Amino acid sequence: MPELAEVAWYARQWDAGLGQRVVAVRVREGARVYRGADALVLSKSLVGRVYEGVALHGKQMLFCFSGGGWLGVHLGMTGGLESAGPGGGGGRHDHLEVVMERVVLIFRDPRMFGRLIWEESEGEPGWWRELPPGVLTRGFRVDCVAEVLRRRSGTPLKALLLEQEFFPGIGNWMADEILWRLRLPPAVPAGGVDAGSLHREVRAVARGAMRTIGRDWSDPPAGWLFRHRWRDGGTCPRCGAGLVRETLRGRTACHCPGCQAA
DNA sequence: CATCATGTTATAAT
DNA sequence: CATTATAACATGAT
Predict the structure, then answer these.
(1) Domain A142-255: which topology?
(2) pTM
(3) DSSP symbol at A65
(4) Residue A37 reports pLDDT greater than 80
(5) pLDDT tier for residue A231 given thresholds of 50, 70 and 90
(6) How far is the CA of A27 from the C1' of C1 (A)?
(7) CATH topology for A4-129?
(8) Which nucleotide across the nucleic acid strands is nearest to A229, CA versus C1'?
């Protein structure tokens, strides 16, 4: 389920290994998550390094190890991170297990849409530095949002919100939540949307998710669409109308036909 | 057994 | 070239 806040929560799970040295590494060679990295090189190179910290950017994570070792992690659709006591890991879908001095850091991903990147360099990897401004940073500005809405005026707003190039970290449920707060249907053309409102709601939803899911995996505040959108039969927490689920651009979109009229 | 899934990307079609 | 649709990826949940 990893969107921005879920990613943040997962990253914190590896805090258990902060300051510890890598004793051994187990990798599932050939797993699809290694399509962007050499599993053997990673396993050999990581040993002996100290886990120093993690940086987050949208759905991307960058774990920093001593001596200029950078582990990039994307959780895809079903990826997750956890820490376990010594002897932990070994699960069917545990593709990377980093054995630290006192804990084992685990990356698991049943569907393997996630990916790992390993790079050794003095500074942060180039791909990391080229990421667009995060939606909760000062670089995410109203005029940039306005520019995107203008350039992509014909694109359905829902589809635009899912583009990581413009709204990094926003995923399917957050996009639906933002549209619901704006009282706009998913298919509304981006061109007619007010940039200021969109900018505000994107940040409000991201911040709210970080304060709940990102903090302790608790549900977002009562009254959010989040709690009602997952299955058929849900009702709008604002007006009580039955929620509609339909496919837009290959993804499920859930909206309230009452509040979010065309 | 059939359908669907909180993501991304390659390819085909328009 | 720009945009959109579709399939693919691999597995688990319903």
Answers:
(1) Helicase, Ruva Protein; domain 3 (1.10.8)
(2) 0.96
(3) E
(4) yes
(5) confident
(6) 43
(7) N-terminal domain of MutM-like DNA repair proteins (3.20.190)
(8) B6
